[in-house]
Amino acid sequence: MSKPRFLLSTLFVATLFCGPLWGQSSAFDRADVNDDARVDRDEFGRIIIDRFDCRDQNNDGAWSLPECRGPGRVTLDAADTNNDNTISRDELTDWGDRRFDSLDRNRDGHLGIQEYREWGLSDM
Ligand SMILES: [Ca+2]
Ligand SMILES: [Ca+2]
Ligand SMILES: [Ca+2]
């Protein structure tokens, strides 16, 4: 494989797993694993953990400050409950639970596309 093609393929795979390249409905479709047109708590949690694994570049099981760049800073402030300036997997899971509850405005235990759209990965 030529170098430009290799770089393009790498970019594609990284985007596929680490961030949205397509519109919100595609992001919603990817989150909605069982295709029931809504995102439940487990599906939401899976997205959160996928993001965690992608961002944990040194594989130490936590997000440190450099790994929380950009919008991730918002998550750091909200999720770092023990104030050690890193986010553990458990802290992120707990934050995801709270975030799910705040997004689920009609309290039906699912995120519809409108509710999910409000999130849009903007705080991770
Ligand atoms: Ca679903
Ligand atoms: Ca922490
Ligand atoms: Ca809902």
Question: Would you write up a description of this structure?
Answer:
- It is globular and about 35 Å long.
- It starts with a helix and ends in a 5-residue tail after the last helix.
- The protein has a single domain, classed as Orthogonal Bundle (Recoverin, domain 1).
- The strands form two sheets. The chain has a two-stranded antiparallel ribbon with strand order 1-4. It has a two-stranded antiparallel sheet with strand order 2-3.
- 56% of the residues lie in helices and 6% in strands.
- It is mainly alpha-helical and 124 residues long.
- Mean pLDDT is 79; it is low at 10-17.
- It is built from six helices and four strands; from the N terminus they run ααβαβαβαβα.
- The structure holds calcium ion (3 copies).
- One calcium ion (CA) binds at residues 104, 106, 108, 110-112, 115.
- Residues 80, 82, 84, 86-88, 91 line the site of one calcium ion (CA).
